[in-house]
Write a structure and sequence with these properties.
Elements: E1 2-7, H1 11-21, E2 30-37, H2 56-78, E3 84-91, H3 94-104, E4 109-113, H4 127-135, E5 140-143, E6 150-154, H5 159-170, E7 178-185, H6 204-231, E8 235-242, H7 245-255, E9 260-264, H8 278-286, E10 290-294
Parallel strand pairs: 1-2, 1-4, 2-3, 4-5, 6-7, 6-9, 7-8, 9-10
Antiparallel strand pairs: 5-10
Helix pairs in contact: 3-4, 7-8
């Protein structure tokens, strides 16, 4: 495997390094620790005149020296037999530089912290992390813990979810994990009835028929995925739920509790034109654990072994 770990000297970045350090990467894996720096106004998130008196060469040198210390420290902490650990200091806007470096490696996975040194640190998911997810053609792991022993796989039968399931089946890092297959039936009033609520006597039979069909499909999907994961030698249990998909995924991760949620950027509903679907975005922002987000265009996971 080829893994890019993006850091910035923040506590969440340290958590990303900690997760990588505790993961059982297969022999031959290359891990590159990288930090992006930019000079000028971009370094401060504000107008350049406020720092006009600072020598730009001195500033650039200081930024680069700090970044080099950060990546060297990260590289040292990840060293172990069987792995190749590299470091790099990147130039440019953080999200663009990270995705560009991942493409150049080429990487199988990007690991980021949940937020960094930006101006919206109070958010659960920082702007750099979400921009990396929006533009990355490969899976992105947002770290919020240090283990992957208990994994929730959000499964709805979509092509994007199938890519996520492929990773769980084929990536060696999941070989020792217990997989919680979560399938959610979103019980709603059939759009073609023209009724806004399921309470009327005329609508009730149609509503019950649609609800039961949704439950049957959910159960069949979960059973199918469970059999596939068990055939791959993984420990699996099923969880059937109803309601809003993002809410139920987050609830399952809290109640189990999970170390990681694995899901695709898009499910079977939503607008294809959106870079990342509403369910994935809500889970990324509110999950109590690490989240591995998988784009539909991700490479065949067997190639990353």
């Amino acid at each position: 495997m080829r893994v890019l770990v993006a850091i910035d000297g923040s506590a969440p970045a340290a958590q990303a390094l900690d997760l990588v350090a505790h993961t059982a990467w297969p022999d031959g894996t290359t891990i590159r620790v990288a930090e992006a720096i930019e000079s000028g106004a971009g370094s401060f998130g504000g107008p350049w005149p406020s720092v006009a008196m600072i020598e730009t060469d001195t500033l650039d040198n200081d930024l680069r020296a700090e970044a080099e210390r950060n990546v060297l420290h990260g590289r040292t902490g990840l060293a172990r037999p069987g792995l190749t650990i590299e470091s790099a200091v990147l130039r440019g806007r953080a999200s663009s530089a990270i995705v560009g470096e991942a493409n150049a490696m080429p990487a199988d996975l990007i690991v980021v912290g949940s937020r960094g040194h930006g101006t919206i640190e109070s958010m659960l998911l920082g702007s750099v992390s979400i921009e990396v997810i929006d533009h990355s053609p490969i899976p992105v792991l947002v770290a919020r813990g240090h283990g992957i022993e208990r994994v929730v796989l959000a499964w709805d039968g979509s092509s994007c979810a199938a890519r996520a399931a492929d990773l769980v089946c084929h990536w060696p890092i999941f070989g020792r994990a217990e997989i919680h297959v979560l399938a959610v039936a979103e019980i709603t009033v059939p759009w073609w009835t023209g009724f806004p609520e399921p309470g009327s006597p005329e609508l009730m039979p149609m509503y019950l028929e649609a609800a039961n069909a949704s439950r049957r499909e959910r159960n069949e999907l979960a059973d199918e995925m469970t059999r596939r994961l068990e055939a791959a030698g993984l420990r699996v249990e099923e969880d059937h739920r109803e309601g809003d998909a993002a809410t139920q995924i987050i609830a399952a991760a809290r109640e189990w509790p999970a170390d990681m949620i694995v899901l695709g950027t898009h499910g079977r509903t939503g607008l294809a034109r959106l870079v990342i679907g509403a369910v994935a975005r809500n889970v990324l922002h509110h999950a109590p654990c690490s989240v591995l987000i998988v784009p539909e265009r991700a490479q065949d996971p067997a190639e990353a072994r």
